[in-house]
């Protein structure tokens, strides 16, 4: 499966959240984010949080695999990401997500009718429109399982 990942870029900024880990249950969070490695970012991120520890989950560059027809980005996954940005940052949030993310030449598998992403969420017209508009602006290629 193809995943989004953070890539260190000292000249860039992205919108994100610093969230507490309930009960310091890092093992549970590590299990949920098993595709990613946990990286301490406490002193490398510019933020206004009073958090004592800040981490970023990212895929090891040695394990990056270019998306392809047999490894596409799931549209149901992008819908969840867009929903999160919309919830936290309003309609400008998804637009900034698309603008600060690379790799939109990757094929996007339209799995909305039967989501393959395990944490797919109900799709609203607003989320559908924001996702579709963002992908269209990036020149993304939507594929189906038949492709």
Question: What does it look like?
Answer:
The structure is a single chain. The chain is α/β, with parallel strands linked by helices and 147 residues long. The chain has two domains: 1-65, no CATH class; 73-143, no CATH class. Helix content is 30%, strand content 11%. It has four helices and five strands, in the order H-E-E-E-H-H-E-H-E. It has helices at 26-32, 75-89, 92-99, 125-138; strands spanning 37-40, 55-58, 73-74, 107-109, 141-143. It has a three-stranded parallel beta sheet with strand order 3-4-5. Strand 4 (107-109), helix 4 (125-138) and strand 5 (141-143) form a beta-alpha-beta unit. Helix 3 (92-99) runs parallel beside helix 4.
In short:
By secondary structure, the chain is an alpha/beta fold.
What keyword list fits this structure?
single chain; 147 residues; alpha/beta; 2 domains; two-stranded antiparallel sheet; 4 helices; 11% strand
Q: How many domain regions? A: 2
**How are the strands of the biggest sheet laid out side by side?**
3-4-5
Q: What shape does the CA trace take?
A: globular
Number of E-state strands: 5
Taking pLDDT < 50 over at least 5 consecutive residues as the criterion, the unreliable ranges are none
- Quote the average pLDDT: 89
Oligomer status: single chain
Biggest β-sheet: count, sense, barrel?
Answer: 3 strands, parallel
Q: What order do the helices and strands come in, and which of them pair?
A:
Layout lengths: L25 H7 L4 E4 L14 E4 L14 E2 H15 L2 H8 L7 E3 L15 H14 L2 E3 L4
Parallel strand pairs: 3-4, 4-5
Antiparallel strand pairs: 1-2
